[in-house]
Amino acid sequence: MANKPMVGQALSPANESETRRHVVAAALAGRKLDAFLVSFGPNLRYLSGFTGSNALLLVLPGQSILFTDPRYQIQAAQEVSCTVTIAKGPLEVDLVGAIARHRVKRVGYEPALMSCEAFRSLESRLPAKASLVAAGGSVEQMRMVKSPSEIERIRRSVLTNSRAFEQTVPGVRPGITEQDLAAELEYRMRRLGAEKPSFETIVAGGVRSALPHAQPTAARFQSGQLIVVDMGALEDGYCSDMTRMLYLGTPTAKVKRIYRAVLEAQLAGIDAVRAGTRTADVDAAARNVLKRYGLDRAFIHSTGHGLGLEIHEPPRLGKSDKGRLQAGMTITVEPGVYLEDYGGIRIEDTIVVTERGCEILTPTSRELRVI
Ligand code: ZN
Ligand code: ZN
């Protein structure tokens, strides 16, 4: 279960982006495309290294062009190894100019990730012989399997996240609010090197812990409460994700039983992870444990998800998902039990799929933290 992936010669991020652009360019002809337009931020970063907020990337067979605005002139020169065009007005104007200049006819675009307005604006400016062709999903497929340098970045993000948790837990006591705890966790993670949380930190006490995506409120913790903490760091562009449970006071027999069920389910899920396994089978492994405890109806979400440049990205590990795991995928395993008017328990780790099993990146103990 703890086989370490081989860490090969890590490419520099710029080289890595270039290699990825070559893969996209080489696939153009087979997809009957003359060019591929990338507009979705994480895909654009993956293929270019550019971290700014306003850009388009056009991948052509022989070259790629990144279009951005003058605010990013210096940054683009530092981050990007392909041709950069600094647009004076709307990026589409320069993009369409390049499409005309290169006599591009079929431009693949990412339909799920472009607004109707952006699509119409672009379509209305295209040269007469050019057309937009829906061609999404391919970059997301590439992104599922992480390179050694990506895994290293996710590992660092996971460590920062876990350190922030360890530094913060000793300060938890009755009387502090959910918001206090969430703020402290986020402050700590930033002090430890994170750019920001990878999603809005979830902290919920008592009956509110039964809400899988609870927003922290001004509610004060009381003795006899379960507290769910679901947190992640974003570091060097990469996400981590972890859920741990705290208990204020002496846990009841019921809390202990549900905790044991969820922990066994999580371990069964992790045990099922290896290259070649169907994602649905990992979900089934966790779900079957909860069934034995009569708690499967209270497990109302999928067992896990991929994470990387985005906190939720393919693959999904749910009941009806069709995919198979591949070595180098980074995923979460996070079964949970949610009982209305009582509370909820979830345990979540970030792991890397390997040929023979997985490596668990999250170093934090999975014991229920009794305070
Ligand atoms: Zn989470
Ligand atoms: Zn998660």
Task: Kindly give the count of domains.
Answer: 2
CATH class of the largest domain: Alpha Beta
Strand order of the largest sheet: 4-3-2-1-5-6
Instruction: Please state the average pLDDT score.
Output: 95
Described by its quaternary structure, the protein is single chain
Count of β-strands: 20
Helix coverage percent: 25-40%
- Note poorly predicted spans: 1-9
**Rg:** 23 Å
Silhouette: elongated
Number of helices: 10
- Biggest sheet descriptor: 6 strands, mixed
Task: Please report the distance between the alpha carbons of the first and last residues.
Answer: 31 Å
Give the second-level CATH assignment, the architecture of the largest domain.
Alpha-Beta Complex
What would the CATH topology of the largest domain be?
A: Creatine Amidinohydrolase
Q: Classify the secondary structure makeup into a structural class.
A: alpha+beta
Helices and strands, in order, run as: HEHEEHEHEHEHHHEEEEEEHHEEEEEEEE
Strand percentage, roughly?
A: 15-25%
CATH superfamily of the largest domain: Creatinase/methionine aminopeptidase superfamily
Q: Compounds present?
A: zinc ion
